[in-house]
Amino acid sequence: MDRTNASLLQRRQAAVARGVSQVHPIVADHAHNATVVDVEGREYLDFAGGIAVLNTGHLHPKVIAAVQAQLGKLTHTCFQVLAYEPYIALCEQIAKRVPGDFAKKTLLVTTGSEAVENAVKIARAATGRAGVIVFTGAYHGRTLMTLAMTGKKVPYAAGMGLMPGGVYRAQYPCALHGVSVDDAIASIERVFKNDAEPRDIAAIVIEPVQGEGGFYPAPVEFMQRLRALCDQHGILLVADEVQTGAGRTGSFFAMEQMGVLADLTTFAKSVGGGFPIAGVCGKAEIMDVIAPGGLGGTYAGNPLACAAALAVLEVFEEERLLERSQVIGARLSAGLRALQAKHPSIVDVRGLGAMVAIELGVGGDPHQPDAELTNRLVARARDKGLILLSCGPYGNVLRMLVPLTVEDALLERGLAILGECFAELA
């Protein structure tokens, strides 16, 4: 059978639902660390990382060995029927890493959307309230509740009608676009005045650095004022660390750099090193509010994924990937700022740790998003062997999600390719 990108994508079109999008017209065959090879044998440098899933790279030997060992023991029992040690051990290890010197407990599920949805369930049970405040530009998932929380209707909720109620949106602070910390706090107060009293709000859910929303880090001052506001009104602060977690920002969880603690933390993506695992970790007294049977899932905390995640945590320690994240972030930022000096279309270079992005504006105007140039850059980079992803409410942000295990030469090669693309197109 013909195994070319074109032939397989033709089969995909006939077999796969149209709503499942695909950025690059490539069918991957195999991968190693920071490179992917397609079915035609062409190698690509991967700066997408499976959308922030591969901080430890493709097929890290320690992760694969852990999964292979677990594969010979058991692949499934459903933890609610028969427990197994990897689930328990992973909960212990996550609790050690979530910031906060208080007793913690953890729930494991399968996807980031599940994690956020369960955090809302826990917050509602703990407070006896139903409302949730989220932010402009937020991305929290694709289930009905998390779609209501996500701040981008097209394409994620297009044609699906109204989402569940009780979700209120405040402004995310962004100095580049004229939203100050005071403005953002005032928008929460407007929710309290116009939409829902504080006593009706169970949780405020925030990404410490927005992911799909454009890689905007929350100012520390804002996080501190948000924490104080939650404490004043008995509202739980939920940190959605699905994309920021597992070392992407230079600390295992981004909240370590925010000067305040969350009541509940969601995690997923790179924690599993390519295997589906997610969860919620928080204050023990909050996590324990829901009675047995109220949390869980058939595949939640699968043994193979737990084994992979435990290996990922070991890799972080052994290879000092938190330090490596900071080094990669500094190199990316320096390289991108050098590009910015040459190309006015780059209106901003920003990020935290290795969670770095550039924003493009027509003629250097941050108020005129240049999605067209962004798309052309993504396509030209692909032609040159570099896989990139865009993001942001207007699709004009290029984000860097290269594995933290990338070799220095490949990191520099990726920056060089991006430089070539700007020289040709910008």
UniProtKB/TrEMBL annotation:
<dbReference type="InterPro" id="IPR050103">
    <property type="entry name" value="Class-III_PLP-dep_AT"/>
</dbReference>
<keyword id="KW-0663">Pyridoxal phosphate</keyword>
<keyword id="KW-0032">Aminotransferase</keyword>
<dbReference type="InterPro" id="IPR049704">
    <property type="entry name" value="Aminotrans_3_PPA_site"/>
</dbReference>
<dbReference type="Pfam" id="PF00202">
    <property type="entry name" value="Aminotran_3"/>
</dbReference>
<protein>
    <submittedName>
        <fullName>4-aminobutyrate--2-oxoglutarate transaminase</fullName>
        <ecNumber>2.6.1.19</ecNumber>
    </submittedName>
</protein>
<keyword id="KW-0808">Transferase</keyword>
<dbReference type="InterPro" id="IPR005814">
    <property type="entry name" value="Aminotrans_3"/>
</dbReference>
<dbReference type="GO" id="GO:0034386">
    <property type="term" value="F:4-aminobutyrate:2-oxoglutarate transaminase activity"/>
</dbReference>
<comment type="similarity">
    <text>Belongs to the class-III pyridoxal-phosphate-dependent aminotransferase family.</text>
</comment>
<dbReference type="InterPro" id="IPR004632">
    <property type="entry name" value="4NH2But_aminotransferase_bac"/>
</dbReference>
